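A reminder from the course coordinator: this example appears on the midterm review sheet, so study it carefully.

Given structure:
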């Protein structure tokens, strides 16, 4: 049973904005909550993918059960598999006792997998098994664990490109890509910026001068809503809670340019390495065929 319409409106109001893109996203979130299918949320870092996942859960039939969040990035594949699927005692060095993973802990509820493209191929295979059969094995275990969990996955990358590059399983992509939601960057919905500034001001009790507000309105926010929120909190901290003036607002523009350039360079380097690997693999297969 879905929540009352007043409650639904209250939940969706946390998705701040009046642009056509945000109004459309609210409708899609509401529709996604009616079904129990996997959801794939894409968009740049900081646009609010976690928030959208939370809203879907809160509007769904699973809202009385747990919503658990698991980041798949910046963590070793072994530790991530243990976090997701749990492990048996003695499964690896340091596994002194049995551990319940996120899938078991979220049984009956929703598991949000953030940056799902960072999953190892072993973890991808296990996730596919859960989606197809609703069961898995703990790391080091022999007993099948049955679970009823809705999967919401998110990524700031294009999963189709990751599939083409051989970094993500095609069958898993199709399993996850049942309901697809895209959150546009803040720079593409400038009409939402003023509302977001007012919403953050109210929530964080930040007093802005007119010039400070104008300065906030003038920036493009490559880090999206998360960056806007951090900039405003930092400005409040520098004033000690007094009114924020134009000079209290610092965007770290030089740092952001450097980070963007570094990110592009790293991506190009990774693609070159992958292309080299793929070429080596193809050459190896040709040699293998010739001499077999």
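Designed residues:
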């Amino acid at each position: 049973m879905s929540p009352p319409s007043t409650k639904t409106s209250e939940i969706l109001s946390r998705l701040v904005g009046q642009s056509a893109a945000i109004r459309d996203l609210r409708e899609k979130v509401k529709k996604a909550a009616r079904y129990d299918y996997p959801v794939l949320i894409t968009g740049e870092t900081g646009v609010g993918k976690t928030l959208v996942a939370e809203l879907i859960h809160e509007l769904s039939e699973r809202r009385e059960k747990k919503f658990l969040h698991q980041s798949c990035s910046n963590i070793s594949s072994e530790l991530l598999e243990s976090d997701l699927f749990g492990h048996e005692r003695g499964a690896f060095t340091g596994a002194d006792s049995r551990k319940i993973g996120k899938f078991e802990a979220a049984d009956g509820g929703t598991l949000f997998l953030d940056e799902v493209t960072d999953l190892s191929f072993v973890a991808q295979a296990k996730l596919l098994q859960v989606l197809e059969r609703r069961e898995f094995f703990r790391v080091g275990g022999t007993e099948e664990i049955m679970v009823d969990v809705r999967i919401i996955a998110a990524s700031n990358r294009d999963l189709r490109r990751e599939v083409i590059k051989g970094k993500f399983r095609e069958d898993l992509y199709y399993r996850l890509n049942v309901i697809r939601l895209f959150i546009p960057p803040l720079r593409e919905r400038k009409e939402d910026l003023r509302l977001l500034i007012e919403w953050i001001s109210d929530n964080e009790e930040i007093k802005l001068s007119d010039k400070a507000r104008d300065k906030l309105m003038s920036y493009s926010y490559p880090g999206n809503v998360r960056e806007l929120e951090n900039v405003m909190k930092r400005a409040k901290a520098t004033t000690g809670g007094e009114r924020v003036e134009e000079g209290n607002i610092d965007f770290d523009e030089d740092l952001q340019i450097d980070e963007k350039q570094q990110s592009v360079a790293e991506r190009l380097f990774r693609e070159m390495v992958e292309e080299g690997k793929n070429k080596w693999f193809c050459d190896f297969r040709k040699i293998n065929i010739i001499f077999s």
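The longest helix spans residues 253-290. The two ends are 62 Å apart (CA to CA).
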